[in-house]
Amino acid sequence: MPVLAVASELYPLVKTGGLADAAGALPAALAPHGVAVRTLLPGYRQVLARLEQPRKVLEMPGLFGGVARVLEARAAGLDLIVLDAPHLFDRPGGPYTAPDSAEWGDNAARFAALGRAAATIAQTQGFAAVHAHDWQAGLAPAYLRFAPRRIPSLFTIHNLAYQGKFPAAVFPALGLPPEAFRRDGLEYYGAVGFLKAGLWYADAINTVSPSYAEEILTPSGGMGLDGLLRGRAGDLHGILNGLDVEDWNPATDAHLAARFTAEDVAPRAANRAALQKRLGLAPDPDAPLFAFIGRLAWQKGADLLLEAAHALMAGGAQLAIIGSGEGGLEHACRAFAAANPGRAGAFIGFDEGLARLVYGGADALVVPSRFEPCGLAQLAALRYGAVPVVARTGGLADTVIDASPMALAADCATGVQVAPGSADALAAGLRRALALFHDTATWRGMQARGMATDVSWGPSAARYAALLKGLAARHG
Hints:
Layout (H helix, E strand, L loop, with lengths): L1 E5 L11 H13 L5 E7 L2 H4 L3 E9 L7 E8 L2 E7 L1 H4 L17 H18 L4 E5 L5 H7 L7 E5 L7 E2 L4 H4 L12 E2 L2 E3 H8 L2 E4 L2 H6 L10 H6 L4 E3 L29 H12 L9 E5 L8 H7 L1 H5 L3 E6 L3 H13 L4 E5 L3 H10 L2 E4 L9 H8 L2 E5 L2 H6 L5 H5 L6 E3 L4 H15 L2 H13 L5 H18 L1
Parallel strand pairs: 1-2, 1-6, 2-5, 6-7, 7-11, 11-12, 13-14, 13-16, 14-15, 16-17, 17-18
Antiparallel strand pairs: 3-4, 4-5, 8-10, 9-10
Helix pairs in contact: 4-5, 5-7, 10-14, 11-18, 15-19
Function: Synthesizes alpha-1,4-glucan chains using ADP-glucose.
Enzyme class: transferase
Catalytic activity: [(1->4)-alpha-D-glucosyl](n) + ADP-alpha-D-glucose = [(1->4)-alpha-D-glucosyl](n+1) + ADP + H(+)
């Protein structure tokens, strides 16, 4: 069954977060289930540079102020359809921001063009369904709903906090009928809501973990959209993200100083030593080494970790922090490392090789998010033998089994869960993790069970395939 996926980023071509990982891995995971995915991606400079033998299949004159071409090509092993619209995407900076980190002022037009192109391509190129990812693709279901031919759509929420909200003045340029700009449509508190459009007009909705699917139905987790989501609860599904376990494999990972397997984790010591050297930590083979990888942002709880890190320092542990984000948090991480020389290290930025070294060398990975739709860091940590210490929220709660007395007795624990949003609760969880670390047999058992956990796309791909095929059968 041919499916058109629509995404604003796609690993390994362009990535700012987990959306790229999921959109990049799903096509291969769905193929064994009879779902052939081609992904529509904006024609950013770095994407166009990687295309192999592109072929023009469509021209779209007058697309939000310029001429656009639709290209078919392959790149990095992926089947792509690329919206080559230089007036919208041929520019420096990131997918959403200029080099000075300010959001592009025409993002509404840029991603409305992506949605309109998706609907046109689906109508003319023989696709059975459209799978739209996050707010940047949120208008695709709206354009499809008002298109001549009925093609069903699935809308995936990767993070409800990012909603694509723009002034009402952009609506006339969208080319949608006037009735679309109302409460029962894409109007959102007097503005145009791209994510709301996806939630309202898609035939089915999913998010990236079962727990997050429940949390977003509540006022505290729904980010202002819980009422709409409760109204569509029958069409809402929670499907866990996974990892590409061919790429994420400690036995073959070229980024590691030493490769290892679940049967022989001894080489992890070399990764640990390399990580300590890279971040200026004392070359202590016995100190518990905890790590954080992620955006330095309120959602990710980096501030909570800095408040709770005294528990690690008092327990003789080391702390490695890798990430970037809010300026104040970047400064606070540097300051913490400076105040704890040899015990704490901070790398501000992102480096794929360093991240893999963290997963392959740290004893524990701390994920203290205030909310987390799914999270990939804890999945990578499980796969690479870094025991996760996570907040009990969203996909973190779904993927890590807490080392409670009952779970330890049943030999099923894979990590430590703590209450979200509390530095005190996190500090208590870190102390509990330290105590477990010093019980070598217990820690090794948790590590082994984590590495044996199925974090692949296999089970989730089967659910996506069934959902997409069901939509095509009912609405196609």
